[in-house]
């Protein structure tokens, strides 16, 4: 048995993202705003050197200013 999302060429994570977006868009205005805020992601990363964690940075901010992460 082949799953519909697999036969459509989607990964399971992508399938879940599409389904979640469809559910959020089907809500009324008040709950929709709350659900959309909950659906936003905030990715952070830290560079490890010599077994020690460096400064934790927000991925969106680093991408907005290219070369900043490279300068250190």
Task: Note the main attributes of this structure.
72 residues; alpha+beta; 50% helix; 18% strand
Description of the structure:
Belongs to the eukaryotic ATPase epsilon family. One of its GO terms (molecular function) is proton-transporting ATP synthase activity, rotational mechanism. This is Mitochondrial ATP synthase epsilon chain domain-containing protein. The chain has helices at residues 4-7, 12-26, 29-39, 59-64, and strands at 44-49, 52-58. The chain has 72 residues and is of the alpha+beta class. It has one domain (4-64). Strands 1-2 form a two-stranded antiparallel ribbon. Helix 2 runs antiparallel to helix 3 (29-39). The longest helix has 15 residues, at 12-26. The radius of gyration is 18 Å and the shape is flat. The relative contact order is 0.08. The mean pLDDT is 80.
Short synopsis of the structure:
With 72 residues, the chain is an alpha+beta fold. It is built from 4 helices and 2 strands. It has one domain.
Write the layout of secondary structure elements.
Layout: H1 4-7, H2 12-26, H3 29-39, E1 44-49, E2 52-58, H4 59-64
Antiparallel strand pairs: 1-2
Helix pairs in contact: 2-3
């Amino acid at each position: 048995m082949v799953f519909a999302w697999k036969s459509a060429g989607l990964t399971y994570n992508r399938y879940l993202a599409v389904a979640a977006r469809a559910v959020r868009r089907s809500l009324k205005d008040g709950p929709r705003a709350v659900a959309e805020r909950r659906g936003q992601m905030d990715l952070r990363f830290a560079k490890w050197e010599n077994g020690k964690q460096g400064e934790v940075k927000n991925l969106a901010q680093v991408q907005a200013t290219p070369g900043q992460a490279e300068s250190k």
